[in-house]
Amino acid sequence: MRNSPQYPWNVAPKRCAVCDGRFGLIRHYSWRTALCSKKCVNRFKARQEGDHRWLRGLHSAAWQRAQ
Ligand SMILES: [Zn+2]
Question: Any idea what the Cα angle at residue 43 is, between residues 26 and 48, rounded to 5°?
Fold first, then answer.
C-alpha cells in the first residue's frame, strides 16, 4: 500500500487528517492515518469509500470509450 500519500512511518502527525484538529488523549488510526475521534474515523472511511466509487466510475467510463 504505497500508492497513496502517507506520513513517513517515523514521523508522528501532529494534527488530525480529517478535521485538522489537535489530538486529545486518544488517537484513532485508520489505514495508518492518525485521527482525533471516532467521528473523524467514520468521515475518513466514508471518504475512502467515495474514492473507490469514483475510481470504479472512471474505469467503467474508460471501458465504454474503448468499445
Ligand atoms: Zn479529527
Answer: 115
